[in-house]
Amino acid sequence: MRIALGLEYDGASFAGWQTQPAGNTVQDALEKALAEVAGVPLRVVCAGRTDAGVHAAAQVVHFDSPVNRPENAWVRGVNSHLPDSIAVRWSRVVPDDFHARFSARSRSYHYVLYSHAVRSSLLHGRVGWFHLPLDVTAMQAGAALLVGEQDFSVFRAAECQAKSPVKTLHQAEARREGDCVIFDFRASAFLHHMVRNMVGALVYVGKGAHPPEWITELIAGRDRRLAAPTFSPHGLYLSGVEYEARWQLPLNGRIIAPFDPLDLQLA
To answer: What is the dihedral of CA 201, 206, 211, 217, to 10 degrees?
Structure first.
């Protein structure tokens, strides 16, 4: 029996998604909890791996279970064995040809950047932070230049294992909400560190170091050394994974409301 799960997690205290010998990953914690419910070891496959410190509002995974359990056992039962920073939100029995990664049509990420002269201790680990004033209009103009099928080598980490740097970015936007700047990105797939590197470049545009057209120059140059440093992981959220309706996943795996992981309006 193949089961799909929807997860959310606070990645601040984890060494990323993928299992590691030290065991401090989201995958390790989830598989341990699933084994408690199933009574046998289970391996999960996720829609998108997240790095250390990165969060998820709508991660999707699947696994094959040799035992039958009530649907609620894969939610409440598994949650009872998970740390508070990880929660299973829903479960579904899916056809054997469903695959959390390869069946996904697109993935969405949001980056929450606290734009204030002084850092916030209450938001530590949940947002990125930049202390200088930012021109969000210029950042939005730069973000628009990222959209389309392009070679994103300039935003690719050196350890990236993707076969090709060419990806199709369907959405790239920047908007202000109170003291925060919210970045929205949607693509068929992303390169390693791609979102954090794009955010870093857009922050350079926002602070006035470069005009929006610099983004086009960076993409054409394909040289990671010419771009901005990789931005902090703490403000990055996997916010949705889109699937075809035939899989009958809740909301096709995507979140319902406009992304709001926390109350952004601070006194």
So the answer is: 10
